[in-house]
């Protein structure tokens, strides 16, 4: 199982690389990695398992955070209507987005960042995304709210972008 020790932190080169598209159909190894990533998120949101293994409660994790520069990430979260979004996504991309921007109140954090960083992180309010599931099926989703923000945060990891890169500098 994945624990916090498997997650690379700021300064690790994998977090600043552009990740490579994943060969489809998924190899057994890539599928296993993605399943392990989804399992980590589920474990991290289970109070007993999270406490036992000292896991930070994660809603998303990208392969580069495991030192694997492949274009895949996992999401496991519920939106404000309690709809569950639980996916392993391969070669994900935004196909269209709102002009309107949104941000998490209080800013963002990251499983690979062990410090608090203040500042709003601007994200598209709504995105239409495409990608492939762990079963090699093409998927298209319309996301808003936390699912939309989390998707954009994870997609940035595949392009070597950290959330704080998007916080505008103090305008004096
Ligand atoms: C880094 C951490 C703080 C653990 C963050 N969790 C999080 O934001 N949880 C959350 C947010 C809400 F708005 C409502 C709620 F119910 C729970 C997270 O998992 N990530 C994933 C990550 O680091 N992926 O690389 C960072 C988040 C920033 C924006 C969305 C994902
Ligand atoms: Zn992150």
Task: Provide a descriptive summary of the structure in words.
- This protein is an alpha+beta fold and 172 residues long.
- The chain has a single domain (4-171), classed as Peptide deformylase (Peptide Deformylase).
- The chain is 22% helix and 24% strand.
- It contains three helices and seven strands.
- It has a five-stranded antiparallel beta sheet with strand order 1-2-3-6-7. Strands 4-5 form a two-stranded antiparallel sheet.
- Strand 6 and strand 7 (138-144) form a beta hairpin.
Computed CA radius of gyration, to the nearest angstrom: 15 Å
As a percent range, the share of strand residues is: 15-25%
According to DSSP, the number of beta strands is: 7
* Whole-number tally of structural domains: 1
CATH-derived architecture: Alpha-Beta Complex
- The neighbouring-strand order within the major sheet is 1-2-3-6-7
The CATH homologous superfamily is termed: Peptide deformylase
Task: Give a nutshell description of this structure.
Removes the formyl group from the N-terminal Met of newly synthesized proteins. Requires at least a dipeptide for an efficient rate of reaction. N-terminal L-methionine is a prerequisite for activity but the enzyme has broad specificity at other positions. The chain is α+β, with helices and mostly antiparallel strands.
